[in-house]
Amino acid sequence: METRALTARTSTESTRDIPEATVARLPVYLRALTTLCEAGTITCSSEELASAAGVNSAKLRKDLSYLGSYGTRGVGYDVDYLRYQIAREIGVTQDWPVVIVGIGNLGHALANYSGFRSRGFRVVALLDADPNRHEEVVAGVDVRPFDDLEQIVKEHGVAIGVIATPALAAQDVANRMVASGISSILNFAPAVLSVPEGVDVRKVDLSIELQILAYHEQRKTHGATA
Amino acid sequence: METRALTARTSTESTRDIPEATVARLPVYLRALTTLCEAGTITCSSEELASAAGVNSAKLRKDLSYLGSYGTRGVGYDVDYLRYQIAREIGVTQDWPVVIVGIGNLGHALANYSGFRSRGFRVVALLDADPNRHEEVVAGVDVRPFDDLEQIVKEHGVAIGVIATPALAAQDVANRMVASGISSILNFAPAVLSVPEGVDVRKVDLSIELQILAYHEQRKTHGATA
DNA sequence: AGGAGTTTGTGAACGGGAGAACAAACCGAG
DNA sequence: CTCGGTTTGTTCTCCCGTTCACAAACTCCT
Ligand SMILES: NC(=O)c1ccc[n+]([C@@H]2O[C@H](COP(=O)([O-])OP(=O)(O)OC[C@H]3O[C@@H](n4cnc5c(N)ncnc54)[C@H](O)[C@@H]3O)[C@@H](O)[C@H]2O)c1
Ligand SMILES: NC(=O)c1ccc[n+]([C@@H]2O[C@H](COP(=O)([O-])OP(=O)(O)OC[C@H]3O[C@@H](n4cnc5c(N)ncnc54)[C@H](O)[C@@H]3O)[C@@H](O)[C@H]2O)c1
């Protein structure tokens, strides 16, 4: 958290301290660039890219400026070059082994999702506590006992774990994950996880998203009388 | 967007202008309160509730203050009373009919998810463009042709739609939803949707979540040399 | 070569949210 | 009734993120 010295930065390192809000948008830009690239576009302006990504062009330029000066004034950005730079910055050029715990309704969908593989995430194991699931093979990966977690994490050097178990089991699963060496968790269970310092947790909660929509919806119709 | 007059507010109306960040946390508090309630807790302090919700207690109190003064100084909050107040504020006491479009891997999981029903969201229809899916029945609801959208929306007064189709179809589906009268969309497809003013869109993008984790993970290990 | 037109990168103003800190309000004991 | 202990509601300050606006830098045309 302490501010890093700004002087004497080695030029080989990329720029440090990218704001969290920017980090969250970089994958969006990456996707937009990939789409443009597939359409055969060679260069694009910040205006075009911003509109493809659904953001303000000033915000886009400021975001990109944290990575470095990869554009050309009067011209724009080289699509392929910028795409690579962003991918490198967020680490998508690497291969990230991932484990999914809880192969129920949601776990099945996640295991079958092709969008992970194409972005450098490789599902190396599917784990479930229910022995009845252990005969199953989902998307070419067989479901294994939850107790194999530690061994698999060590073997493949897994850093990222996905939790798709019921809420009651989530904290236990998280504890085991952390104990095994996992330091980033994506949690789909509607539970507040407590993890030690240094472990990142992101949660995806569909009910909350719907409730936020409901709140605004309620005010659209009900508040119309004001 | 214009500032509303603060004078002469009728006392029957609940407080207006709840900050967006607060709205996003209210469902979390609601869940924590429900858990406490089921555990038989009658009252709780802001400190307890905050810890159950995973937030700062000062933030919690400030959030709740936007709804009104529902606590008692020196005592805390009545769990059941506060729960009802929050539920009413975000509209969860109502019944919200919802349609899901795109009954593939993810659509199946969503249709089977029990967490929606228990929070006032009722899946009234499952729609898919693929005729092969139309014989299927998922979670007691039969899959119907996408072209039935307009009729179903009108019939049930649907305001909220969920998109779980491939990215290429998402914009088309959104257009049809809006044309049918839907004004809130939850989008799972990795696509930027453009919708007219007055329509709310929230997106859930699993790849982005993983990429954000990967970015921080990369810096944990790689930046350790600094 | 020079100028007109275009687009990037960034300084600065602005708005909203987070957290600390404290006064006001409530309970219960004596 | 009064007083000490407790907890809320709110004010104030700081920080992060957004947006505007413009100088710097580049291309292309004449
Ligand atoms: N299905 C959805 O669309 C959806 C949507 C939003 C949130 N969620 C949440 O995602 C989670 C999973 O949902 P689901 O519908 O797949 O539930 P599910 O019951 O179908 O699957 C849960 C799986 O987790 C396994 N499991 C239970 N305890 C375990 C443990 N301790 N270790 C390992 N595995 C364990 C079970 O055997 C089961 O296979 C839930 O928390 C749910 O609230 C699901
Ligand atoms: N499966 C996952 O876990 C997962 C995770 C993250 C994101 N997503 C995204 O969610 C979406 C759905 O994923 P999926 O794995 O369920 O895909 P899927 O291919 O299994 O299902 C897509 C369904 O949409 C239907 N469909 C296609 N075009 C349609 C149209 N115009 N109108 C109505 N229905 C149409 C198809 O018939 C199919 O049944 C994709 O955009 C995917 O990127 C999925």
Bound molecules: nicotinamide-adenine-dinucleotide
* CATH homologous superfamily (4th level) name of the largest domain in chain A: NAD(P)-binding Rossmann-like Domain
Order of helices and strands of chain A: HEHHEEHEHHEEEHEHEEH
Hey, roughly how much beta strand do the residues of chain A contain?
15-25%
**Order of strands across the widest beta sheet of chain A?**
6-7-5-4-8-9-10
Give the C-level CATH assignment of the largest domain in chain A: Alpha Beta
Kindly state the mean pLDDT of chain A as a whole number?
92
Low-confidence stretches of chain A: 1-15
Structure description:
The structure is a homodimer of 226-residue chains. The first copy, chain A, is an alpha/beta fold and 226 residues long. Chain A has 2 domains: 20-90, Winged helix-like DNA-binding domain superfamily/Winged helix DNA-binding domain (Arc Repressor Mutant, subunit A); 96-208, 3-Layer(aba) Sandwich (Rossmann fold). Helix content of chain A is 44%, strand content 18%. Chain A has 9 helices and 10 strands. The first copy, chain A, has helices spanning 20-38, 46-53, 57-65, 79-90, 105-112, 114-117, 149-156, 167-180, 206-222, and strands at residues 43-44, 71-72, 76-78, 96-101, 121-128, 137-138, 141-145, 160-163, 184-187, 200-203. In chain A, the strands form 2 sheets. The first copy, chain A, has a 7-stranded mixed sheet. Chain A has a 3-stranded antiparallel sheet with strand order 1-3-2. In chain A, a hairpin with a 2-residue loop joins β6 (137-138) and β7. Mean pLDDT of chain A is 92; it is low at 1-15. At the A-B interface, α1, α5, β9 and α9 of A face α1, α5, β9 and α9 of B. The complex binds nicotinamide-adenine-dinucleotide (2 copies). One nicotinamide-adenine-dinucleotide sits between chains B (101-107, 128-130, 133, 146, 164-167, 169, 172-173, 188-190, 206) and A (109-110, 112-113, 115). The structure holds a DNA duplex (30 and 30 nucleotides).
